[in-house]
Amino acid sequence: MSGNLRSIVAMLIAVAAFSLMDAVLKTLIGTYPALQVAALRGLASLPLVCVYVLWRREAGLLLRVRWQLHLFRGVISIVMLSLFSFALRHLGLAEAYTIFFVAPLLITILSIPVLRERVAPVHWLAIAVGMCGVWIALRPDGEVLFSWGALAVLGAAT
Q1: Which of 17, 57, 98, 151 gives a 20 to 30 Å CA spacing to 107?
Q2: In angstroms, rounded to a whole number, what is the distance separating the alpha carbons of residues 152 and 86?
Q3: Does residue 42 have a pLDDT over 80?
C-alpha cells in the first residue's frame, strides 16, 4: 500500500473512531456526570496509548518526559472535556461542534496576550468572517448561542 493510500485509510479510521467516541459521549452524558464521562474516556484511551508506545519501542522516552507539563496538559484536557460533556447535555452534537469551530479563531486571538504575536489586519478579517460563519451555521436567530451549553463549549474551545 502506498504512503498516500495508507494515510487516507488512517484518516478515515481516525474520523470514524472520533465520530463513534462522540456518539458514545452524547449517549453517556444523559446518565452520568460530565467529569465521570471525561475520566472514563481518558481511562479507555490509556491502554491504547501504552500499546502504541510499546509497539513503536519508545518506552525509554517515558524517562525523559517533562511530567509537570504533561500533568498540566492532562488537567486542561479534563477541564475541556468536562465542559464539552456538560454542553452535550444541553445541546445537540451539531450545535456543540458548530460553536467549537471558533477554537482556531480563539487561538489566533489568544496568541496576542499569551505569545505576544502580532495579528495582521487580513487575519482579523478572517476571524470576523469565521465568527459570522459560526453565527450563520447556528441559524439566523442564534438562540443556541445564549445558553449554558454554549458557554461551556466556548470555555472548552478556549
Answers
A1: 17
A2: 7
A3: no
